[in-house]
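S.,

Sequence below, as promised.
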Amino acid sequence: MADNSPIWSSGASSCASPGTPPEIRTSPPRTPSPRNETPSRRSSVDQDDHAASQSTSEFGVQHDGLAVPDRPSYLLKDSPVGKKTYHNSATFASVQEPLIQNRRRDIRLSMSDKIIIIPYDEFMATFIPPPADEAEPSERFADLDFTAIKTKPENAMYDPLTQAFNQDWLIPNDVAVATPSKPDPSVKSKQKIDGGLYRRQDAPEPMSETRWSAIELSIECKTLDIQQDPLDETKLDTPEADSKLRQDVLGQIMCYAVLVFDEQWRTHHFTLLILGGKARIFRWDRSGVVATPKFDYIEEPWKLGSFLWRFARMTPAQRGHDTSVTRVLPQSAYHKLMLARAETPAQTDDGTIVGEHARLKFKDSLEGGALWCLKVDDKECGTRYFLVGKPQFKAKGLAGRATRTYIAVDTKGKAGEFVYLKDAWRVAHNRIEQEGNILKKLNDDSNGGPVEFVPTLRCHGDVDDQVTVSQDIWRRMHPDAKPEECALKTHRHYRLVVNEVGIPMREFRSVRELVACLALCMRAHGQAYRRKGLIHRDISAGNVLIYPRKTVVNGKTLEVRGGLLADWELAKSVHDDDDAPRQPDRTGTWQFMSASALKSLDKRILVPDDMESFFHVLLYFAIRYVTHNCPDVGRFMDLYFDGCQRHDGAFYGGEKKLLAMRHGELTTPLGDHLVFFFPRSNPPLQPQITGSENVASHASTREVNDQPDVSAGDGDADQSDEAHCQDVAEDLYEESTLDTEERSTGSSQEPAASQPPSPRDAPAPLQPHPLNELLAEYLSYLRAYYTLYVPIKPKELENFRNDRIAGSLTTQGAIIEEEAVYNKTEDPDVYDFIGEDPVAETPFVLTANPEISEAEKARLAVLAKKLADPEVVARLLITLSKAWPRASDRVPDQLPPDYRPDNEPTLQSKRTRETAQLETEEPASKRSRSLR
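The prediction came back faster than expected:
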């Protein structure tokens, strides 16, 4: 039965998108609002009063955050790419591992408007309290003599400094250790710091390696008190210094703080920076950094002495340790449980092994690191404990959500089931729900039942009273400032546990499986919208997962690999009639946001925006893992996913993505049509494909005992997809420089007649992949939407014709030919279990555009309307891909691991993104970039 509710918009009565006409601003879906009435529009003063008086959300959860600040008047100070990034791909999608100097620069730029300087006495009273049971020896502080600490050279400072600090009355239970020469071997970046305070039992030997996992107070030494001082106290609002040398020091100590947060369980951390005969103290948290003014510790030794004496007597929580986490000790009961679960496969009643993907990754997480027990306080089910090893994912950066995810063992679960635990510092502003409350609504039976293909909530809750304070210091320092002038957010520590342990989508086995999983994620999106009145708003490559679901076929248990749409923390109710942003920056992940959202700072995210994001996700995986004619994958990803433009100090999306949506076509950096192919097959790596031969095919599902599939034509061909892809990698890279015509026709130079051609001398022609047809059809929807509803110059309309997406992208003939040579197996796969959801009939009102004929408007409206319903787009993916040959068409990653964009620094280049920014007249605050 068709759902006749309008689902074009996200339910707002008005839309901030400048390109969407008022005529198509439709009402919310038929899901009834829990509110008794819709609040009327209020003045800004009334809205503030209403927000203050509103005690609960529509989920029935009391808000504990601050009022949401308005969008900053400086627009986007933050990253053009930065908001969030895909897994560990660094700041840019095109850069897999940034250089250390780039990482320091990026972190510094992300923090440029999050630095606060407060008086020394206020800093000490706020953050370094004296012990309640011991009087301060003020007279001994005044008698301290730090004159032995030399101001230069730097290596002459270490021994005198540690000797001056290591006095039993000053730091009785800690020890200052110099570690300037040897990096921590467990840290990939190999960074080291000049010294630090350690607990005596955890301290390294003097002049040995830094131990980031044990350091209590970071100590960095510099010889120059002005030229190397990272802060400029004359700049009250943005105290970051302007000179390159001083900025480098700031980036350096920020990276050291990040390492401490990465290697320890921290709420905050302190750094002591020695600048010749002067010093500063820094306190870092997930909102920003608070620092003291520079003081002369030679002339005022009591300042440094008082800090060290108090710090040595502070509790672990005061020092910044997360006390909700405890270490799992060897041979303890928890340790034995973790080892047993890591080594023992789970079995169903019929003896079938299940969940091996989770067990094997959990086992890997126990190697080479500490083991931990994490506490989760749930208001409904009480306190639960979960056992974890190393994180599966760890967000980069200093300020922000700092998300870590773990495969965990539930200590209260039956036989210690594997679950997925997310540890993050959520944004605690009004109107932003806890992700667990959103999942609870997605999982409940209301309004049509639970949403499929989303995580199942097990428990969640805030962690004790752990909340950032830097933002409060800023507001205290600026009592008359408007809310939009504070760039620091309130972050509260939070943990979420779900039942499903997903697999990153990058581990898809075939393009067919990739498309099917994305289709199921679209179905989850559509059900959440229709049944629960929620829109996801953050579709990205990291938020779509593969999840093996157990099912029984012919009496035997199988694991069917399907999609799972995760990370609902930015989801928003379509019944939220307040168009004001809930936090002062764009919502979503830059690389996958719609071009129209990147084109506008204030656009409200609608269903078509998320459907476009799904397209970008599909393209992201295709350009990296499917054979194609693009000669420079890194350059394509830099232009399409990371691209940005700056205007009046604000960042907007790049031209490559926007033009692809407007024109409805994808092109390589050289301007050719982007075309995807099946991998080339060359003996002896794989039998040559002919009309009468079969090839090894791999289902989207496998029996859970993970027996490899067998070729229908060769009983010895039992290679897995991954092994097969590795075998053909060499041939794929040999073909990567062929142009479009060569790849389409398979033309190659014939060897001399006297020399019989070998398989490598005469490769088989490349066969176009039916993915091209899917992308072309998908692009036709997007092009129609952009033509009708995203403002463009009238003179550009004449270029937007259907023939722009035809030609080499139309591969129906190749699809028929490929179906003839690829035999499908009879094994069940995910398509055997995909049903259909109802498709909504959406009212549609066209916008007046004199440059488009009425007939063209009607034709485009039919296509654009399809983006309004995720189920329609999901059916497109399912219908086209279900008939595809079940082939091993995934290839190894084609993005070079050492790729650097043209404006990223190399050993021979002096021009960087930052130097290009510094050539402008804009202040540093308008050039900054923010990590996740």
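The mean pLDDT is 77.

Coffee later?
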